[in-house]
Amino acid sequence: MATMEIDDLRRILVACAGEDDGIDLTGEIEDSTFQELGYDSLALMESAARITQEYGVVLPDEAVSDAATPRTVLAAVNSMVTAAA
Amino acid sequence: MTVRTVVTGVAVAAPNGLGTEDYWKAVLAGQNGISELVRFDATGYPSRLAGQILDFEAKDHIPSRLLPQTDVSTRYAIAAAGWALEDAAVGPDTLPDYDMGVSLSTAQGGFEFTHQEFQKLWSKGPEYVSVYESFAWFYAVNTGQVSIRNAMRGPGIALVGEQAGGLDVVGHARRVIRRGTRLVVSGGVDSALDPWGYTSQLSGGLVSTVDDPARAYLPFDRAASGHVPGEGGAVLVLEDAGSARDRGAPKVWGEIAGYAATFDPRPGSGLPPGLRRAAELALADAGLEPGDIDVVFADAAGSTAGDRAEADAIREVFGPRGVAVTAPKASIGRLCAGGGPVDLATALLSIRDGVVPATAHTSDVPEEYGIDLVTGEPRTLAVRAALVLGRGRWGFNSAVVVTAG
Amino acid sequence: MNRRVVITGIGVRAPGGSGVKAFWDLLTAGRTATRRISHFDASPFRSRIAGEVDFDAPAEGFSPREIRRMDRATQFAVACTRDAVADSGLDMSALDPHRIGVSLGSAVASATSLENEYLVMSDAGKDWLVDPGYLSPHMADYLSPGIMPAEVAWTVGAQGPVTMVSDGCTSGLDSVGYAVQLIREGTVDTVVAGASDTPISPIVVACFDAIKATTPRNDDPEHASRPFDGSRTGFVLAEGAAMFVLEEYGAAVARGAEIYAEVTGYATRCNAYHMTGLKKDGREMAEAIRVALDEARLDPTGIDYVNAHGSGTKQNDRHETAAFKRSLGDHAYRVPVSSIKSMVGHSLGAIGSIEIAASLLAIKHNVVPPTANLHTPDPECDLDYVPLTAREQRVDTVLSVGSGFGGFQSAIVLRRPEGVSA
């Protein structure tokens, strides 16, 4: 299974929860919290489900809390993808 | 003294016009919003026509964050509520949050959305069902979304009563205002034009199988053959008249002067249906006589039995050809919960402009109906008061009287 | 015109036994009726337990045609309506049918029937373009469920206003609140009101799975619904119905009716916050409670029992506890608060009416039903939740509340009328 890149995550977030009008997702977002990016728990649950469908990994709830960041999610996904490979 | 409820904002999302003025121009021009289905390939389906909104680009009207979580019907509701509030010059801070309520009707819920989730569940598995399915489908969704989007924390309600429910919510909004809430966003929308939703509407046996968009829905015509399902609706901003004046509301479209709802007796009982009684009760509630009403916006079932029953009720209340009658929904189809609110908006436009739109396409009204149906061209007519009728399958009857205020 | 409204008849179909007596026996014994889902094979789902009603339509007196015509949710509503009318002793046929209304609550109405028909029309999800050749004549009624209140209206001969109130999980409180307003304003004198939901079907189970709102405690179904307990992990889906006869006070007294309670206050507010999330402070539920008490002209200290929403989700129980403190002040710590969802689960729109039924019976019997499965409260839930065991005490006034997706927060106040002995 392929690893997940920031553009993949960006695409999944937009597909699952749209994007906040006042926030530019195309910039450096790796270290912003999801809360800062305008995503609530529902948005993150939908995105986590999509990640499971695409990458075959199940993220623990705390990995996709609104305090998490794209960087931590990518790290969690990719470590599981690598471990499974 | 009873609080008066006035309309300070109006918005229409209809198959022949998006936005109040576009809709009004289309209706007066007799522009038909009924066309061949484009949402899916209906080849082989017994009916293939619908009143479809074809020019609504969701991303132009709805915040991106709300797109993945909303059905098309909810998008209409959110957009129309926004336009109505803009028309009324009401923002989230215009009034205290608890002074603004929401009273909306839908009879079909977020059906296309839920159809997609049903398909994911059964073709792929439970883990593919969206987190949004838990609310995007249910009948309360529009009330919740409109309340959230506009920071309205007063009383909220969602009523389901088929085509009559769209009038019932307006009657209830007036009740809420009388009990002390200053402003209520009210009205209704519906849309179920995905293959499953559309097919489901056919099962009532009331949808026309005629395939000419100008001949399929001919209310009160000798050739009436059923109705055409449509989508969309209207949202109104209702306010306590005194409160609207105090905040300097830019305009008053009119007043919700009377309302009543009745239910038909059990089918086969031989007892008279309840539409006439609803009309009479609404008139009494408004303190008006039949002679005070300038125009009736008919429910317009489009079936011979339904049209005849309604013509009987109108004739019994107003006398033979005693009042102008029209059914602008002939050019948009029956919108379920959206139908009554669109008629209310149309009645308010008639009051504003002194013109009653025609019942598109209908030309041959049986003499024995005894109604003065506006056909062909719009009729110039000073309108001070209008009666709007709505009926729902199985016996719902609602009537609202709107006046110039 | 501001007329008083009383409740004179009750009908209940809840998990754990049919009818009012079985329902009350279950609650007062602190027994639970949650179990492994038997309505369908739930093995692919995260949450596989529910509060199911053992409902035998022929034994309930439904004819073959009625069974074909009415779906399960409608059958529940009609069965409860028949019971409620019989319980009230009211001869509906002697009333002016124009002065009788119906207000039926339901959150998801015919969802189960929709799913059954979907499977046929789509051939188990295979076809997006469903086959109209497999269209059931009832499908329009499942799509737009006006038939549900219509069947109730036909059962009692109502020809006044008939409607369905569908405010998600507060539907069963709001439908009664709606009925109260119809009688108070003088539109009608009698309303059959209540709520019914039969949501135990794959699509509904799946959508609550998706947001992890229902509990995954599948190994211990009887103890899965644990409102206010620190170990709670979500609610248990359920089905059920409750219907009532509401009458204008003077008319009920004149005919010598047994009055369960007067509805003295009702209010609903939106939180305008989130479709599923709740703010911790309970502000809008507190406001609904405050307005309902105000309408009832009641000081918080006048409440003898609070029938909680108590769904057993982490956020609800904390939100609600905060709302009680905010609206009732110190009395929140003294008044018993309990959740019958611990025993009968959460039947979405129906539960508000089922909880009103429990509240009326608490007044009648002077017994507060317990919160079952509550052993170690969440430290943030620090009120008297009446753990495990019912409590005999004087109950004259009950506050019942509900909270639902969409942000709805509702409160109703029920009071034993003066002159009715305890």
List keywords for this structure.
heterotrimer; A: 85 residues; mainly alpha; globular; C: alpha/beta; Peroxisomal Thiolase, Chain A, domain 1; 11-stranded mixed β-sheet; 16 strands
Summarize the entry for a quick read:
Chain C: This is Actinorhodin polyketide putative beta-ketoacyl synthase 1. The complex is a heterotrimer of chains A (85), B (405) and C (422). Chain B is of the alpha/beta class.
The coarse silhouette of chain C is globular
Top-tier CATH class of chain C: Alpha Beta
Number of strands of chain C: 16
The greatest inter-chain interface is formed by: B-C, 83 and 83 residues
Tell me the Rg of chain C in angstroms.
20 Å
Round the mean pLDDT of chain B to the nearest integer and report it: 97
Counted up, domains of chain C total: 1
Relative strand content of chain C: 15-25%
Mean pLDDT of chain C: 97
The CATH architecture classification of the largest domain in chain B is 3-Layer(aba) Sandwich
Specify the oligomeric state. heterotrimer
Ends distance of chain B: 16 Å
Shape of chain B: globular
**Which bin fits the share of residues in helices of chain B?**
25-40%
Keywords (chain A): Phosphopantetheine, Phosphoprotein
Pfam families (chain A): PP-binding (PF00550)
Domain Carrier (chain A): 4-81
Protein name (chain A): Actinorhodin polyketide synthase acyl carrier protein
How would you describe the overall organization of this protein?
Chain A is mostly helical. Chain A has helices spanning 6-17, 41-55, 70-84. Chain A has one domain. Helix content of chain A is 49%, strand content 0%. In chain A, helix 1 crosses helix 2. Chain B has 405 residues and is an alpha/beta fold. Chain B has 12 helices and 16 strands. In chain B, strands 1, 2, 5, 6, 7, 8, 9, 10, 11, 13, 15 and 16 form a 12-stranded mixed β-sheet that branches. A two-stranded antiparallel ribbon of chain B has the order 3-4. A two-stranded antiparallel sheet of chain B has the order 12-14. In chain B, strand 10 (295-297), helix 11 (304-318) and strand 11 form a beta-alpha-beta unit. By secondary structure, chain C is α/β, with parallel strands linked by helices. Chain C starts with a strand and ends in a 7-residue tail after the last strand. In chain C, helix 10 packs across helix 11 (314-328). Chain C has helices at residues 19-29, 64-69, 72-88, 111-122, 139-143, 147-156, 171-184, 202-210, 249-254, 283-295, 314-328, 331-334, 341-344, 351-365; strands at 5-14, 17-18, 34-36, 49-51, 100-105, 162-165, 190-197, 237-238, 240-248, 261-270, 305-307, 337-338, 367-368, 391-392, 397-404, 408-415. Chains B and C meet through helix 4, helix 5, helix 6, strand 6 and helix 7 of B and helix 4, helix 5, helix 6, strand 6 and helix 7 of C. Chain A: This is Actinorhodin polyketide synthase acyl carrier protein. Chain A: Keywords: Phosphopantetheine, Phosphoprotein. Chain A: Residues 4-81 form the Carrier domain.
